[in-house]
Amino acid sequence: MRFYLSLCLYVSCHLMNAQNITANYAVSGVFCTGSLICFTDLSLSNNGSIISWDWFFSDGTSNSNLQNPCHIFTFPATYTVMLKVINSNGDMDSTYQSITIGSCTKVIENYFNNTISIYPNPTKEILNIDLIVPNQNTKINIYNSLGELILSKDIVNQNSIINTNQLQSGLYYLNVLKNNKTIKTDKLIITK
User: Fold this and answer.
1) Which of 184, 144, 35 is nearest to 99 (CA)?
2) What does DSSP assign to residue 58?
């Protein structure tokens, strides 16, 4: 017989099997419409490994069953993002957080646009990255339209090149991180 405990805090609630599994996650990104928001699973299972992740973004778009998905919210609002996890023994837990997405001003975008240049876009094979101030903690992540990480590269030089030859034609999302914080998100079009 399993006993479940309901626990609610200000922005997070759990319905959990009190002994075996705890759902939890972290959120990172720029909380602006059109920006890539990434979710990192922090769930724990004391009995069996976690085998299923169900993410519900509450914005009318597709849900995800990836362990660590990324998502783009297109309208400013407060969204309830829920994660449900199941372990190999069938124990289940879920948690949710309220995430507020705003319409961000061009001031932030202009600041970052003046510190980094990414071109050409659209591109066929090569993507150039020019940093005004090189930083050893700068990384470029490229995600497909499902939010799956396709390519990741540390940028250590003022001028770097990313070979996109292995990517198929289509729409991708480019995420620039500095010291593990998103400083720029942009659409990237690959043409062949």
Assistant:
1) 35
2) S
- In order of their start, the domains of the chain are 4-101 (2.60.40.10), 106-190 (2.60.40.3080)
Handedness of CA 174, 176, 182, 184 (dihedral sign): negative
Answer for the pair 20, 82: CB distance below 8 angstroms, yes or no: no
Q: Tell me how far apart the alpha carbons of residues 107 and 110 are, in angstroms, rounded to a whole number.
A: 5
**Can you give the pLDDT at residue 102?**
81
Three-state secondary structure call for residue 80? strand
Burial label for 191, CB within 10 Å (0-12, 13-18, 19+), is: exposed
> What's the confidence (pLDDT) of residue 67?
95
More confident residue, 164 or 133: 164
Whole-angstrom CA distances from 60 to 33, 74, 80, 82, 88 are: 15, 10, 12, 13, 30
For the stretch 124-157, pLDDT in tens is 888 888 776 656 678 899 998 888 899 999 887 7
Span 6-23, average pLDDT: 54
Contact status, residue 147 vs residue 163, Cβ threshold 8 Å = no
CA distance linking residue 29 with residue 32, whole number of Å: 9
Q: Specify whether the backbone of 48 is left (phi greater than 0), alpha (psi in -120 to 50) or beta.
A: left
Q: Is the pLDDT of residue 14 over 70?
A: no
Stated pTM of the model:
0.52
| 162 burial type by CB count under 10 A (0-12 exposed, 13-18 middle, 19+ buried) | buried
